[in-house]
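QA checklist item 7 of 12: single-chain prediction sanity check.
[x] sequence parsed
[x] length recorded as 162
[x] structure emitted
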Amino acid sequence: MTRTQHDSGAWPRGEYPLLYLDMILSPKNGRELLGLSLLVAFSVGVLHQWALGSYLYWVYDWFDILMHFLAGLCVSLFSLWLFYFSPLAREAPKNKKAVLFVSLGAVLILGLFWEVFELFIWHTYDEPNFVADTLGDIVLDILGGFVAYRYFVFHFIEINGE
């Protein structure tokens, strides 16, 4: 018996009533996308707090690279879920070009907004290599978005035959 209790009252081996991860994270309804984007967002938040407390952004130059990649991945995954599977979603074409536009468009908008925010709040234009650092951050945001795009194409277009 799957998804139900046995007559003895015990749940089937390896299954628990509240942990139906295969149902919650089912690619058919997009919950996998939402769950993954929330997991990445939580990871970014935890890593960011750890980095601020331990000065990791200043000690390790590569830590900023990791964070921008993960942020681009998170923004892209969430925007794809929002555009294609959320209750607000409308019927939209699920072809590769449309998905790429949604994925990278959201990442570019939020990435550019973040860089402008950094510019005005932290006056990053005073830092050495300001232009190279800003362009690198945007490229890494886009790279994270492209990884999310490929994930979406593999799981929701190529596999499902849509």
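[x] summary fact logged: Residues 29-158 form one domain.
[ ] second reviewer sign-off
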